Amino acid sequence: MINCLIIDDEISGIEILTHHIQKTSALKLIGSTNSALSAIDFLKENSVDLIFLDIRMPEINGIELLKILGNKYKVILTTAYAEYAHQGFEFDVIDYLLKPITLERFLISINKLIERTKDNHQTKNDVIFVRSGAKGSLEKIVLSDVYYIEACPNYVSIHNAKEKKLVQIGLYQLEKALPKNFKRVHKSYIINTDKISSICGNLITLYGPIEKLPIGNTYKEDFIKSIENKIVT
């Protein structure tokens, strides 16, 4: 059972999400509030797995609350303003729901949450160690922070939201050690599919440190097959 908290300053928003949660057997609503400040107090006293978080709220908005909470909770953003969703993905939220929220779209978000949880359980850990520097010291890489990996002469460059790390390993060798959410999309690039913002033609847009990366023709068919179960038509 997934314990849920709704944070939304509109009563109608809380009512719709309450209805959808009650229709979903995997979820349990343990609280709702129209204030980010009261939510902070609630979280201190209660065990919450998933937060449905509105973005535009008085006093402290949803993005500001994400900064306060850090990465302690799974979050699905709920908003009537799609332009704010991009900011939320910088905090690795599960999804965003654009109001008015239908039950069908709500369930798609819950499936994303379940799939991500399943993938995390299947992965032994979220850390690898690779050799870096002239002396070959071991560099710790937290995989959930990685956006993409780029092949360079004699080394690879591992990019996260704030920096890049140069490590002494081949791209193919590194690829074999990565979990299945990392996909080769080009002879020079491996991406973390959890960080994809959009796909248009042969270009992938990632949230975070770069605008777009190319999809190589050699890798396109395999890449599209790997995300087919997440495509809703």
TrEMBL record:
Protein name: LytTR family DNA-binding domain-containing protein
Keyword Phosphoprotein: yes
Alphabetical keyword list: DNA-binding, Phosphoprotein
InterPro entries registered for this protein in UniProt: CheY-like_superfamily, LytR-like, LytTR_DNA-bd_dom, Sig_transdc_resp-reg_receiver
Limits of the Response regulatory domain: 3-114
Ranges for domain HTH LytTR-type: 135-199
Molecular function GO terms recorded: DNA binding
